[in-house]
Amino acid sequence: MMKWIETTGKNEEEAIQKALRELGLDRDEVSVEILERAKSGFLGIGSTPAKIKVTYEAADEAPAPAPAAQPAKKEAAPKKAPAAAQPAPAAPKAEIPAAAPPAGDDERAAQIREFLTGLLERMEVKAEPRILVTEEGNYKVELLGEGLGALIGRRGETLDAIQQLTSYAVNKGQSRRVRIHVDAENYRAKREESLQRLARKVAGKVVKYRRNVTLEPMNAYERHVIHTALQDYPDVTTYSTGAEPNRRTVVAYSRGEHRN
Q1: What is the C-alpha separation between 23 and 29, in angstroms, rounded?
Q2: 8 A C-beta contact, residue 252 and residue 206
Q3: Cα 126–127–132 angle (5° rounding)?
Q4: What is the Cβ-side half-sphere exposure of residue 79, based on CA atoms within 13 angstroms?
Q5: Is the pLDDT of residue 59 over 70?
Q6: What is the pTM of this model?
Q7: Exposure of 69 by Cβ count < 10 A (0-12 exposed, 13-18 middle, 19+ buried)?
């Protein structure tokens, strides 16, 4: 189910961040439409805020569970005559609480491990998943083995497909979705460095020529890297447009609305 909200801010970036905080979503989980660009006015007089429309996909609300039946109250037993004093029973031994499961050893991690193990066997690739849970509750999976180029594919396309299949299998039918990040041979980190360099290079041109630049189609992870790399870049804002698999990131000149 698609929903949308409208927010305002002193510039486009502030309006976008305000919407993301309100929705609890990441930049690339939404589509942004700029309704009105911010105007600084003359010496700060007559300035108008930026106004944006943020569209996002909301999960269907599950029906509220039926209230549990309350047990019938028991009638008070008739009082008995006091008996002779009996020695107090020995205090029960305190139970030792069970130790918390180590990172990557909960139910979701078990589902991830089971799915990937079966998938890798079908692909006839000798590799095994190592799973860690981040502080945000996301799951980072490192595929360990030798010669894993076949798992990465051209520009990480095979790795992306494995990640998407794993996410679908683990989150299907769940009321709370979890993020699953799959990597092999440190490919993501290398690709991230390359995208960060690209983002800064494009941002420099956007500011110099005061023109927006639309990047080539990228997957959700790569678009997120671009957004993060430029979130504090002066006079530049970013947003995604289009539908998968041709969804693109736009690096836009913000026209310095935050300056007089």
Answers
A1: 10
A2: yes
A3: 170
A4: 2
A5: no
A6: 0.54
A7: exposed
